[in-house]
């Protein structure tokens, strides 16, 4: 049977199929409710796009021309007609869209005009829309190179209203149409240098009066002249503000002819608007309330009618017109969204109850799961879907957010708008974490790997597939794990997969051979038996492809409760779970929860076929009949950013686990004379600006990639460019130069806490180090714990500690009233002094203890060694404990801890001894607290 004729055998109804890529990297993707399956089809499988005879995608023609914008309109039309880029920028409601929509109908001398709504869309999704407007190729998203080839000779005019991308993304859009031009509106100025950048400001006084009259649909009355001038001054000619004021015109009380309403004074507008909002009823109140749930989201009238209970599309359309007239909503084509400045906070009575949010989420989930819903509609509403999923999570029902994003993800993928798909995946991951739904988390992690693969981010894809495989293994889902491992095997280092290989095969990555091998469609990954495609059977996670380039299935499906990977009886949400601190890195968690961990891959022909506890060793061919001669390959990984859970070889020393960090060396026997890559693949993105680096490779050290030729015993060392890993980088230099490291890379900072009656939070400013929080000392406990904080930080770094002390003292029954007082820090004395507990006075003006002579208000530590320091306060309640710390540190102003010690000993363990710091790689001439023998 020909490759293109293979039948698809998957569990669950197929949602759709599409093809993406260019040159030799052409991928066919089949999407269903439980997973996406990627198959490499090669250039013959790429569709042949057909250029449309007429390229024209225009907006709805605006009615009357913009007032007072003749100069700007002429400049915009002149620039577009001259094939020059043009950008109109200004605040929301200033008239940018009106100006651009008029200009579109006055341009000429182009091969076609493509008008797009740019709100909430990234540059790649906009480029795909341009391609679809120019070519007939259903279900095809060309790669960047192919897209440029197809659009290179078209003299297009691409017009984008409300462009919402950074300036660098604008350059990519312009490069996509090298023979054409891009005109757009944006809030901020994006166009610099070449082209026409037009800044819109307020209208002139005369144009402002004309706009008021146009909105009132009558000439201004003589009595309104002063009010109109005052409104113009108050709004600085802002069109939206003037339109809102006219919409709030009130009936005159002086018998004005014809009963015409008169303009309000500027001071009356806010109160009139609040009154108008308060008087809203029925559909209008609901529309405003639902859009306020996700303020950045936009929706069509049909979708709003779905969210608003007990109403009709006509009633919602009338409500939208009313709210738009009041300036509370913005309308862009068929979509509406909350205005950026609705005139102040909405009344509390408009806020939805948690029950209403939950019911709306359930209705939107049904819409997303309905096969009649076009994928494009899902992409257009991705902001609403993600926003509602986040809101329902805050309302205590993250499981509903999981169901919504799972229902929307397959169809959004088929829309070929991968910025929207990424938004849904990201929100789904967050909802799954909040709900404790590990199956859903594994699904979204796997789908994020598929998206990364399709966008050329193969390293990120491999990491995501590895994380999904680990999760599915932990969940007892071997079919899901095989699916993820098969996908990971395809994109790992080595030759590109040959056409016909699929990500859903049952090939165990540990025994992967030539990836040109056709495993067939419908293979049962759980049993290993072959299910004939003709029977319609198949595994939960099957593989295969339909005809390359065929049109996608009409719509999409949803995750059914019985499907593999679907959330089944999710655990109840934890309403007490603290929100993550955006300023702190996420803590490492167990791999079942899909934390930031990593795996090491040794590829090429270095190892022909082996499996090390889930570690993928990529080989070439089926392997030799006899074991080839080998040489040792030592791989050392050290970093404070992630934990390597899977690493081939035999450990040369202890490799700690569960710390969220890595300091491990393993040795593998690799085929002598062979050559291949060594890669560390984190399961998630590294911090911005941080990259992996390697030493000991063929590439010049340090390098961003690593290739090893096994002509002799080799050592490879890997870490990151993070400031946290500075010591690890020095160690890598030493290891790969054939010299052992001279000192450990981490040190301990131990803080003895004297503020016993209060809660104390100690925070170091070392990146990646979390604060320590200690509650008040529990005197009723059978064995009160020692009050101390400890941090493990890089050697030879400088850190600043800050303290926050809160609570109520038992002795005086009053809140904490004092300042932190540190002992043993760099700001304090360096030589011993007399310990005088009476040296501390009382400040009658503040009611606090005065600081001790050796106490300091701040604490800085230059960590050439570890340090032991003290922390108390000037609160009266801490007098005794502070005196004890002051006396101890008067005798020992500096207490050093040996490098490499990462924790103070427990009571049952041997105490640390005073030993020369140099024994442990520390400075000469000082003593450290360390183990009695050098470990």
Short description:
The chain is α+β, with helices and mostly antiparallel strands and 935 residues long. The protein is 28% helix and 21% strand.
Kindly report the average pLDDT value. 76
Helix amount: 25-40%
Side by side, the strands of the main sheet go 5-7-10-11-6-12
State Rg: 33 Å
Notes on the protein architecture:
By secondary structure, the protein is of the alpha+beta class. It contains 22 helices and 41 strands. The strands form 12 sheets. It has a 6-stranded parallel β-sheet with strand order 5-7-10-11-6-12, with helices on both faces. The longest helix is centred in the middle third of the chain and has 18 residues, at 418-435.
What are the main properties of this structure?
single chain, 935 residues, alpha+beta, six-stranded parallel β-sheet, five-stranded mixed β-sheet, 22 helices, 28% helix, 21% strand, disordered N terminus
């Amino acid at each position: 049977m020909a490759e293109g004729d293979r039948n698809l055998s998957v569990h669950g109804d197929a949602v759709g199929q599409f093809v993406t890529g260019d040159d030799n990297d052409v991928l066919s993707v089949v999407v269903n409710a439980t997973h996406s399956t990627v198959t490499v089809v090669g250039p013959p499988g790429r569709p042949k796009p057909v250029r449309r005879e007429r390229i024209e995608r225009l907006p709805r023609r605006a009615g009357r021309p913009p007032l007072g914008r003749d100069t700007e309109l002429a400049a915009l039309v002149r620039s577009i007609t001259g094939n020059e880029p043009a950008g109109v920028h200004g605040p929301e409601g200033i008239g940018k869209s009106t100006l651009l929509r008029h200009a579109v109908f006055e341009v000429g001398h182009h091969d076609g005009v493509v008008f797009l709504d740019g709100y909430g869309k990234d540059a790649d999704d906009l480029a795909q829309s341009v391609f679809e407007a120019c070519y007939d190729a259903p279900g095809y998203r060309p790669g960047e190179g192919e897209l440029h080839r197809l659009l290179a000779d078209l003299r297009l005019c691409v017009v984008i209203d409300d462009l919402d991308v950074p300036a660098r993304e604008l350059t990519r859009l312009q490069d996509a149409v090298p023979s054409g031009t891009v005109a757009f509106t944006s809030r901020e100025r994006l166009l610099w240098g070449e082209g026409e950048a037009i800044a819109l400001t307020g209208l002139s006084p005369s144009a402002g009066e004309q706009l008021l009259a146009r909105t009132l649909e009558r000439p201004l009355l003589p009595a309104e002249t002063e009010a109109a001038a005052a409104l113009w001054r108050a709004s600085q000619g802002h069109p939206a503000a003037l339109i809102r004021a006219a919409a709030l015109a009130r009936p005159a009380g002086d018998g004005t002819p014809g009963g015409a309403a008169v303009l309000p004074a500027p001071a009356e507008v806010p109160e009139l608007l609040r009154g108008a909002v308060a008087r809203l009823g029925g559909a209008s109140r609901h529309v405003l309330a639902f859009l306020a749930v996700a303020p950045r989201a936009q929706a069509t009238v049909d979708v709003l009618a779905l969210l608003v209970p007990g109403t009709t599309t006509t009633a919602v359309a009338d409500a939208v017109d009313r709210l738009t007239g009041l300036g509370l909503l913005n309308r862009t084509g068929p979509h509406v969204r909350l205005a950026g400045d609705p005139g102040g906070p909405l009344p509390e009575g408009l806020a939805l109850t948690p029950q209403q949010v939950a019911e709306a989420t359930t209705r939107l989930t049904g819409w997303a799961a309905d096969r009649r819903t076009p994928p494009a509609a899902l992409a257009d509403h991705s902001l609403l879907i993600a926003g509602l999923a986040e809101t329902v999570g805050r309302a205590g029902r993250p499981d509903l957010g999981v169901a919504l994003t799972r229902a929307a993800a397959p169809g959004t993928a088929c829309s070929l708008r991968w910025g929207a798909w990424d938004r849904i995946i990201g929100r789904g991951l967050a909802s799954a974490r909040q709900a404790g739904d590990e199956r859903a988390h594994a699904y979204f992690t796997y789908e994020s790997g598929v998206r990364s693969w399709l966008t050329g981010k193969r390293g990120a894809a491999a990491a995501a597939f590895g994380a999904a495989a680990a999760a599915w293994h932990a969940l007892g889902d071997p079919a899901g794990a095989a699916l993820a491992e098969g996908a990971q095997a395809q994109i790992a280092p080595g030759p590109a997969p040959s056409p016909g290989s699929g990500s859903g095969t049952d090939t165990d990555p540990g025994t992967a051979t030539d990836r040109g091998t056709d495993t067939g469609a419908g293979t049962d990954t759980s049993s290993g038996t072959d299910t004939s495609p003709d029977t319609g059977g198949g595994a939960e996670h099957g593989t295969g492809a339909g005809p390359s380039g065929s049109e996608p299935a009409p719509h999409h499906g949803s995750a059914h409760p019985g499907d593999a990977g679907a959330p089944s009886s999710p655990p109840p949400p934890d309403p007490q779970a603290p929100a993550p601190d955006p300023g702190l890195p996420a803590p490492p968690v167990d791999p079942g929860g899909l934390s930031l961990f990593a795996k090491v891959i040794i590829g090429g022909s270095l190892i022909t076929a082996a499996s090390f506890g889930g570690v993928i060793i990529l080989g070439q061919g089926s392997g030799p009949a006899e074991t080839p001669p080998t040489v040792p390959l030592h791989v050392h990984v050290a970093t404070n950013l992630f934990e390597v859970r899977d690493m081939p070889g035999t450990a040369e020393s202890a490799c700690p686990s569960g710390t969220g960090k890595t300091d491990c060396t393993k040795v593998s026997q690799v085929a002598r004379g062979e050559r291949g890559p060594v890669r560390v693949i984190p399961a998630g993105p590294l911090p911005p600006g941080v990259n992996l680096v390697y030493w000991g490779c063929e590439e010049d050290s340090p390098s961003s990639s690593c290739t090893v030729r096994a002509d002799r015993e080799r050592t490879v060392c890997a870490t990151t460019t993070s400031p946290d890993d500075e010591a690890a980088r020095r160690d890598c230099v030493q290891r790969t130069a054939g010299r052992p490291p001279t000192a450990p890379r981490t040190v301990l900072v131990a803080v003895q806490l004297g503020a016993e009656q209060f809660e104390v939070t100690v925070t170091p400013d070392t990146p990646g180090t979390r604060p320590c929080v200690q509650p008040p000392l529990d005197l009723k406990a059978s064995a009160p714990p020692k009050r101390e904080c400890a941090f493990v930080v890089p050697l030879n770094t400088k850190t600043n500690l800050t303290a926050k002390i809160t609570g109520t003292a038992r002795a005086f029954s009053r809140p904490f009233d004092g300042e932190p007082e540190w002992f043993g820090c760099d700001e304090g004395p360096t030589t011993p002094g007399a310990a005088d507990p009476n040296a501390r006075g009382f400040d009658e003006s503040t009611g606090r203890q005065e600081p001790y002579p050796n106490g300091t208000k701040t604490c800085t530590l230059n960590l050439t060694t570890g340090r032991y320091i003290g922390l108390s306060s000037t609160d009266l309640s801490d007098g005794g404990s502070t005196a004890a710390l002051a006396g101890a540190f008067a005798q020992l102003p500096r207490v050093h801890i040996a490098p490499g010690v990462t924790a103070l000993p427990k009571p049952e363990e041997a105490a640390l001894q005073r030993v020369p710091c140099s024994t442990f790689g520390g400075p000469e001439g000082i003593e450290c607290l360390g183990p009695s023998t050098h470990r």
